[in-house]
Design a protein that fits this description.
It is a single chain. By secondary structure, the chain is of the alpha/beta class. The protein contains eleven helices and nine strands. Strands 1-9-8-2-5-3-4 form a seven-stranded mixed beta sheet. The longest helix is centred in the N-terminal third of the chain and has 23 residues. It is globular, with a radius of gyration of 19 Å.
Length: about 300
C-alpha cells in the first residue's frame, strides 16, 4: 500500500475547503432533491470538458465494444450524474442513515457466513452505486467495521470529510499507507471486520484480468483473508432509486494451497471477476475515471475479441 505523507495546505487548498464548507451548509439547508438536481446538472455540464471524460470514453470503448458510441456516451453522462448525486449524499450521510427504508439487503445466505465468522470478515467493494453508504450494511448485521480508503490531496477537505465518515466506522477509518497496512493487519489478527475499496489501480500489487485486459489491483484484501483464514466478501450498494440502495453480497473463494502468492493472486482475480460482472449489469454506476489499465503494456487495440464474457 503506497504511503501518502500529509503536506502543508496551499492557497488552493484553503479555497477548495471554503467552497466545500459553503456547499455543506447550502446542501443541508436545501431539500435533498433540489440539492441533488443542482449538483447533477453542474457535474454533467462541467465534467465532459475535462480530460477525465476523455479517459472515461476510452475505457468504455475498450470495455464495452459491443455498445454503440451513442450508448457509451449516455453511460458516461449517467455516470457523471451519479457522481453529482454522490457528492450531495456524502454531505447528508447521517440523514440518509436515519431513514432505514432507503436501504434493502440481498444477503443470499452470506449473512449466515458472516455471523458464523467469530474472527471477523474481509469486505471488498468497488466505486459503484454510492460507495459512501457501504458501512450501513455492517450496521444492519450488527458488525463493527474498520475501513481503508484513499485520502484526498487537500488536507483540509480530507480532515473535514473524514469527520463526516468516521461515525459509521466503529472499528476506525484509516487512510491508505504503509502505517495503515500494519494497523489493519493487527486489527485483522484481533478478529475485526475490515472493508477495502479494492478497484483502485495499485502498481505495487498484481495484474489480473479485467474487461479483457490485465489491470493493476491491490492484493491486500486477499492477503489478509488468506493469512488469517477469514471469509472474503464482495459488497455492492446498487442504486435502485433516488437515494435508495440495495446491498448485495457475494462470498469470494480464497484458495489455500502450498503456493501462497498464487492463492492471493487467484482470489484477487476472483474479486475483479465479480466487480466486472456487476459493472456490466449497470455500467453507469461504476466510476470509470480510474487509471486502472496500463495502456503501455495492454493497449486498447488488443481488440473486442479479447474482451472477457460476464462471469
Amino acid at each position: 500500500m503506497k504511503s501518502e505523507q500529509p503536506r502543508p495546505p496551499r492557497l488552493v487548498h484553503y479555497i477548495e475547503y471554503v467552497a466545500l464548507r459553503a456547499m455543506f451548509w447550502l446542501v443541508r439547508a436545501l431539500p435533498l432533491n433540489i440539492a441533488k438536481s443542482i449538483s447533477e446538472t453542474g457535474v454533467r455540464k462541467i465534467a465532459p470538458l475535462t480530460r477525465r471524460h476523455t479517459r472515461v470514453l476510452d475505457h468504455l470503448r475498450h470495455a464495452l465494444p459491443e455498445r454503440t458510441e451513442t450508448e457509451r456516451r449516455k453511460i458516461a453522462d449517467e455516470m457523471w450524474r451519479n457522481v453529482g448525486t454522490i457528492a450531495i449524499e456524502t454531505l447528508v450521510l447521517d440523514r440518509l442513515a436515519a431513514e432505514p427504508d432507503r436501504f434493502s439487503f440481498e444477503y443470499n445466505g452470506v449473512d449466515e457466513v458472516i455471523r458464523a465468522a467469530p474472527n471477523g470478515c474481509i469486505y471488498v467493494a468497488c466505486h459503484y452505486g454510492n460507495w459512501e453508504v457501504l458501512p450501513l450494511a455492517a450496521h444492519d448485521l450488527k458488525r463493527s467495521l474498520a475501513g481503508v480508503y484513499k485520502q484526498l490531496s487537500n488536507p483540509l477537505s480530507e480532515h473535514f470529510l473524514k469527520e463526516l465518515r468516521e461515525p459509521f466506522y466503529q472499528g476506525g477509518l484509516f487512510p491508505k499507507g504503509y502505517t495503515t497496512a500494519r494497523q489493519v493487519l493487527s486489527l485483522a489478527k484481533q478478529g475485526k471486520d475490515i472493508a477495502v475499496l479494492a478497484d483502485l489501480r495499485d502498481t505495487r500489487g498484481v495484474e489480473v484480468p479485467f474487461f479483457g485486459r490485465n489491470a493493476w489491483a491491490t492484493p491486500f484484501p486477499a492477503l489478509i483473508a488468506r493469512t488469517y483464514d477469514r471469509p472474503l466478501i464482495a459488497v455492492r450498494p446498487r442504486r435502485i432509486g433516488p437515494s435508495r440502495f440495495r446491498f448485495e453480497l457475494e462470498q469470494i473463494d480464497v484458495p489455500r494451497t502450498d503456493d501462497r502468492a498464487a492463492d492471493i493472486k487467484a482470489a484477487t482475480a476472483a474479486v475483479h471477476a465479480v466487480f466486472e460482472r456487476w459493472i456490466r449489469e449497470c455500467p453507469d454506476q461504476w466510476f470509470w475515471t480510474h487509471r486502472k489499465w496500463d495502456y503501455a503494456t495492454n493497449p486498447p487495440e488488443s481488440g473486442p475479441e479479447n474482451s472477457s464474457e460476464p462471469a
